[in-house]
Amino acid sequence: MPAEKTLKGRVAIVTGAGRGIGRAIALVFAERGASVVVASRTVPEVEKTARDVKALGARVLAMPTDVSKSSDVDAMVQRTVDEFGKVDILVNNAGQVLHMPVAPFPDKVLGPPRMDRETTTGMSDEEWRRIMDANLSSAFYCCRAVGPHMMKQRYGKVINISSNNGSQAFPYVAAYNASKAGMNMLTRVLALEWAPYSICVNAVGPGEFRTAMTEPSWADPEAYQRHIEHIPMGREAELREVGLMAAYFAGPESDYVTGQIIHIDGGITAR
Questions:
Q1: Which terminus of the chain has fewer Cβ atoms in its 10 Å neighbourhood, N or C?
Q2: Residue 216 above 80 pLDDT?
Q3: pTM summary value
Q4: Rounded to the nearest 5 degrees, what angle is found at the Cα of 45, between the Cα atoms of 42 and 49?
């Protein structure tokens, strides 16, 4: 059944669109009729997504962009406005994760399979800043850049891709969890600041999704089983499910919804 063109005439920017959740969102937006700007640091990946978006009949612009740099973000938004005349939708999806303790333990501790280093080594200043810049500063830069355009047209939809890690504490991911908790609060604050301009700001919090970033923790059969047992609904999620929720927040059905964080996690955060 053909998708309803609920986003026809809209222009969307999707960051981290080269693969995984960002790619899935870009494809759903294209199905719904939006013109899509796909942004990612990795040129081959962003170009592949752009080709697939175009194959769905949508207008597309591939933008190799490092969203942790405000100058790159400003150039991306300006190029979008120059090419399409406006920005209606922003999806802040780009992000990174790091698994390690904040401070070194005196003895080696058995952590999760994805530990980036031995637990006898703590997190450096540079590593903390890298995760915060990739996950939170990038969203701030993108919102700051599109805000004036959306306020001028008195319309906009911002969808921040958060995580259940922004609401639940897990060991060895302090920087990631803090960045996602910060994104949740950025979502709520901007929802209040921009409500008078009919701009809706919401967040989607994916749970145990299998992506290139999380693949190492799914690849082992025992680890896979632990993932499934941790999910109340007892199944692996599909990336398209995040795309469909993002499409809801991007479309007219959610024009009175703002400041919300919706978790797509099979019930994990209900515990």
A1: N
A2: no
A3: 0.92
A4: 135
